[in-house]
Amino acid sequence: MAFIFMTAHVVPQLAIMLLLVTSSMSDTCDGYRGFPGRPGIPGVHGTDGKDGTKGEKGDPGDDAVPVIGPKGDPGIHGFPGRPGQKGDNGLNGLPGPMGPKGEKGDFTGVDDPTQYSVFSNKKSPRSQRAPADTLIVFDIPLISRLEDDLESVGYFNVTIAGMYYISYHISSSQSACLKIQVGEQEKVSFCDSPGMMMVTAGSVVLPLKIGDKVSIQTTAPSSIFSRDTDCTFTGFLLFPMNA
Fold it and tell me: Which parts of this chain are annotated as the region Disordered (predicted)?
């Protein structure tokens, strides 16, 4: 018997022709049916099917031991964190022990004139054009707590050593350049020259000793204009000190 080898695409066509011929013979022939034919050649394989769903992860074996690597180097420090919220105030502590009772001081109620000194004098009401280094005379007493504090020539004579506040107020028609002087030493100077009527003032705190003489004098030509209490020279003891 001879075998005929055919290509895969010819086999289906031949199978269809054989079926047609067999069907036709069965319709027209009443004779004896023949033996069944041999099975045809197997067809080509179909395409692979889609992958199935992923299976569940299996359990690790009994001999599985985790591997721990060496310790790493420390990292760099991070930025400081934000300050936290202020906490609640704590409970008040227990009061401390009472201190010892102080000694009672002596109060005499007697006014001691040796513990204070104050003066205030004004200038006579008249205009004065004074050259430099001229004493301004305040010859009319306003306040005097000690006799002869202010001499008639315009000096304040210190009879109690201590810290004093000294000031003056001057009216001027053109300029007023004045200084507060202790003896022959200038302590502080002021100068105003607006070129019109004005009121100027100066003050200083000085330590003075017994026998010091405080005065107001000019440092440059000045035009002093005095009416009523326009020009005053005032001072008072802040606190006494050892001579």
Answer: 34-61, 80-100
